Each structure stands twice: as structure tokens, then as C-alpha cells.
Amino acid sequence: MDLFTAMDISASGMRAQRTRMNIISSNIANANTTRTAEGGPYRRRDVIFRENSFEQELSSVEVEDIVEDPAQGNRIFDPGNPDADEDGYVTMPNVNIMEEMVDMVGATRAFEANTAAIKAQKDMALKALSIGR
Q1: How many Cα neighbours within 13 Å face the side chain of 92?
Q2: Residues 7/12/116/27 CA torsion (nearest 10 deg)
Q3: Are 32 and 53 in contact (CB under 8 A)?
Q4: 3-13 residue pLDDT tens
């Protein structure tokens, strides 16, 4: 494996985790959105990753799809809300802030790990170049 292949693998992980963090941020921002352009409450979205294998043992990752969570949101009694049904209940988005924060920490850690790997690869390349001096 050459230096640039290792950096490409780490960079693919960083791109995938950046997309995941953007989706999580969108979920958190819309945790109370009861009306969307499609109609109804916001639906939580999640990222599906796919492994790309090459050179028999190496693999990178990329985003395969962004999917909506099919779970139903909670219904709360709020007859004064303009989005309430005829019984006075409002269907809230299916976003759990605690779950989103845990996912955000995981995505951040994975991004940081790939950043550290790229830094280590760069340091090794600089050391290899200094050997010839």
C-alpha cells in the first residue's frame, strides 16, 4: 500500500462522517418541526454507508443512501397548535435528541480518528523524505 492510498481511505471516512454529521445536525434542527413541504411532521433521516473493497484487503467507505426513519413520532395534546388534528393532537417528529447527540459524538470521534491517521501518514512521509538528506 502506498502513502496516497492510505490517505484516500482516511479521506473517504472523513467525507462519510461529515455527511453523517450534517444529517444529524438537520435532525436536531428539525426536532420540533411539525409541518414540512411534503406535509406532516419532519421525519428523522439516517445515513447508510457502503464499503468499497479493493486490493483484496483494503477498503474505503462512501455514503450509499440517506433514508427516512419509518417510526412514528409522539402525539401530544395541543389543541391551540395550527397543526393539531380534529381531536387536538399534534404529531411530533420522530427525533430523539439524546440519540442524535450520541450519534454526533460517534461521528465526531470517527472523523477525528481519520484526521489522526492522515496526520500520522503525513509524518511518516516527511520522515522518509528526511532519511535521504
Answers
A1: 13
A2: 170
A3: no
A4: 788 899 999 99
Closest by Cα among 98, 99, 10, 116 to 58? 10
- Asked if the model's pLDDT at residue 109 lies above 70, the reply is yes
Mean pLDDT for 8-28 is 96
Length of the chain, in residues: 133
Amino acid in position 133: R
Rounded Cα–Cα distance for residues 76 and 85 (Å): 11
Q: Which three cell numbers stand for residue 111?
A: 472523523
Locate 65 and state its grid cell: 443512501
Is-contact 74 96, C-beta < 8 A?
no
